[in-house]
Design goal:
The protein has 242 residues and is mostly helical. Among the domains are: 77-149, no CATH class; 166-224, Orthogonal Bundle (DNA polymerase, domain 1), CATH 1.10.150. It has 11 helices and 4 strands; from the N terminus they run αααβααααββααααβ. The chain has helices spanning 9-17, 39-68, 77-85, 97-100, 108-119, 127-134, 138-144, 173-176, 184-196, 202-209, 213-219; strands at 90-91, 148-149, 166-167, 223-224. It is elongated, with a radius of gyration of 28 Å.
């Protein structure tokens, strides 16, 4: 009696998917003949079943990789989706640098900003906050979304109305006064500190002006940080009429 192969079916499928075993091609005689009486519905069901099976194999393969390498970085949106199906989540308002860097395409400077705001007590209320803060494209945001969890610790702020963002390094006093919960004294402090050097990001603004976490949360998506002009803009010279 021939000895049974030591690999169980799941392990064999995983090794085939990872390229460690060659794919077995079924001979033509074993392939079921097409039967037009089944119609397109049966073909669609078979295709969907095949996709589900391939997803299950890829998910199980990722589970093995993560078990061997717990700190592994996910390489693309597909792996993010599989990791979410395995029960993985990233708590946006408590995540560590290592957590963020597991997301595909997440850059160190983005992580630095997130952690500095987190240290200042700032929380993000949803996908829109994160997208505005990090200037993420729709593709990047959608690629991360399955793993992201926005738990709020404490009392959540009221929903902010949409408005045109204000360029903190360029706006005058009248424009700055349109920001939520700002007062003339804070506007003056902002302008004085900005005269020394421009603000680099929201965390820098919070630290230098000693802003509360609630105020910074209200300003997410309402301010931008383009560099200030290099110097004063001089008026055009008056040319004598010829």
């Amino acid at each position: 009696m021939a000895q049974q192969h030591w690999l169980d079916p799941l392990a064999r499928q995983l090794l085939i998917a990872s390229g460690q075993l060659p794919r077995v091609q079924r001979p033509p005689a074993e392939r079921p003949a097409a039967n037009p009486s089944f119609g397109d519905g049966r073909a669609a069901d078979q295709a969907a079943s095949a996709r589900d099976g391939a997803d299950a194999i890829e998910r199980d393969l990722l589970a093995l990789k993560l078990a061997r390498e717990p700190g592994r970085r996910l390489s693309n949106a597909e792996e993010v989706r599989h990791a979410a199906a395995l029960g993985w989540r990233l708590d946006v308002n408590r995540a560590t640098a290592a957590d963020w860097l597991r997301l595909p395409g997440c850059r160190p400077e983005q992580v630095d900003l997130l952690l500095r705001l987190q240290a200042g007590g700032v929380q993000l209320s949803g996908l829109e906050d994160l997208q505005r803060l990090l200037a993420l494209s729709e593709g990047e945001l959608n690629g991360w979304q399955p793993l992201l969890e926005f738990r709020w610790y404490g009392t959540a702020p009221p929903a902010a109305s949409r408005c045109e963002p204000i360029a903190v390094n360029q706006a005058g006093a009248s424009d700055l006064e349109r920001l939520p919960a700002i007062d003339p004294e804070l506007v003056s402090r902002l302008l004085r500190d900005r005269a020394r050097r421009p603000f680099t990001d929201l965390a820098d603004l919070q630290q230098r002006l000693q802003l509360s976490a609630a105020l910074v949360e209200a300003w997410i998506g309402r301010v931008t940080f383009q560099p200030a002009p290099a110097g004063p803009v001089l008026p055009a010279a008056n040319r004598p009429n010829p």
